[in-house]
Specification:
Length: 256
């Protein structure tokens, strides 16, 4: 809340997003929602976690939208937006500075990789290095939403193997040759592990048997079961960890 108010006062005329192709300043975004700095309160932001958020992923997700506005989420809480995640990085830097000042508090923050394209890692690492979101009191965990079915229905990919390739291939490449993307190499030294996220209340058929399809054959429109996602994430991370250990690099845990 402090950050949003401060930014509204000092950077009101900064272009923060494109709305139907036309640039919008921060001031204009708030005007379009009929809001001023004086209206904003912690209650209004509505980002508190309560009991329901732990049972229902959709409710948990909705809490990422300050005042229930996805536009504010995009402006303030995304690494990949019109301003290349500048505000999000500033918030993180402020939080990190508070942690460093209090000395004995640490945070493990999450960043998302969606597996939509192989370029996501390079983009995220560039953001992290450019804005120096580094702190001794902060470690990064990468969360991977289980969104294969959405990418498949939007014809972004043909099979599940493509999803796995987009996530893991860049990591194997940069482990093999850190100079192929030095920013990513540097960023990965502050990543401790991976998380798998989605709506856990969705019913699914968890059957996995010997004749289950392999990832390159999995071209169904529906999502593979949770156990399938986890098995292939685990298998890839295990091999990657052996490789990184041989190269004298840090390894990752799977903490879904």
């Amino acid at each position: 809340l402090r950050f949003i108010k401060k930014t509204l006062k000092t950077h009101a005329d900064e272009v923060v997003t494109l709305h139907k192709g036309t640039p919008m300043t921060l001031k204009a975004v708030f005007q379009s929602m009929n809001l001023s700095t004086y209206d904003l309160t912690v209650d209004m932001l509505d980002v508190h976690a309560d009991r329901n958020t732990f049972h229902r992923f959709d409710k948990f997700n909705a809490k990422y939208n300050p005042i229930g506005e996805s536009r504010l989420r995009e402006v303030f809480l995304k690494t990949d937006n019109h301003m290349n995640g500048k505000y999000f990085a500033r918030i993180i830097n402020e939080v990190a500075a508070d942690l460093e000042e209090s000395k004995y508090q640490n945070a493990e923050l999450r960043l998302s990789i969606y597996g939509k394209s192989p370029g996501e890692w390079a983009k995220l690492a560039k953001w992290a290095i450019q804005y120096k979101v580094y702190s001794d009191n902060v470690r990064w965990l990468i969360q991977i939403p289980r969104l294969y079915d959405i990418f498949k229905s939007n014809k972004i990919m043909k099979n599940f193997q493509e999803f796995l390739n987009n996530i893991f291939q860049p990591l194997f490449e940069v482990t093999n040759d850190p100079n192929s993307n030095y920013e990513l190499h540097k960023f990965l030294t502050h990543v401790v592990g991976f998380d798998s996220v989605d709506d856990e209340s969705k019913p699914e058929n968890p059957m996995l048997d010997a004749d289950v399809k392999s990832p390159e054959e999995w071209d169904d429109d529906e999502n593979p079961p949770y156990a399938y996602y986890l098995y292939y994430m685990f298998a890839n991370i295990t091999v990657l960890n052996h490789f990184r250990k041989e190269q004298g690099l840090n390894t990752f845990v799977l903490r879904p």
